[in-house]
Amino acid sequence: GLTPQDFKRSNAPVPKSRTDRIVWVDDKMMPDLPGIRKLSDALVRFVTLFTEEVQREGHSLTVKGNNRPMLAVYDEGSFFKQHIDAVTPADPRSLTLTYYMNNRWSQEYGGQLRLWPGNNRHVDIWPEADSLVLFRSDEINHEVRPSKERRRALTIWFNKF
Questions:
Q1: How many domains does the chain have?
Q2: Which of 74, 110, 117, 146 could form a disulfide with 79 if both were Cys (CB 3.0 to 4.6 A apart)?
Q3: 28 vs 24, 131, 134, CA distance in Å?
Q4: Model pTM?
């Protein structure tokens, strides 16, 4: 299993842009994390079926594989400032999927994912247990607002090439 010492501060390219702690879950770790393996496999299947349905409807959305899962812990006061995941044309990420693992989350705790889809407006997604959000990595600015309680999430990025 994972211990608190396994989670490290991220090496964000912009200092002080994020204060969460993360661990990248690689294939060597999966045998010790059967729940994370099952969850990750189910989420990958979900995105595969979702993109197939989008394509059947005549829309252009291509997914060619995914990155390894990242577990993130936001301790009290932690945040991630506004950013876009796929910052350059060379970045293959096209979809971001985040699954929340926070029991009995209250909006008074903050910690919401704030999406900025355009027109200077935002949408808040509360990190409630057993919920997920899927959005375009290469198009949508987003941030994690400061959290007053420990917040846990698993994120997988899906690539366009």
A1: 1
A2: 146
A3: 11, 27, 26
A4: 0.93
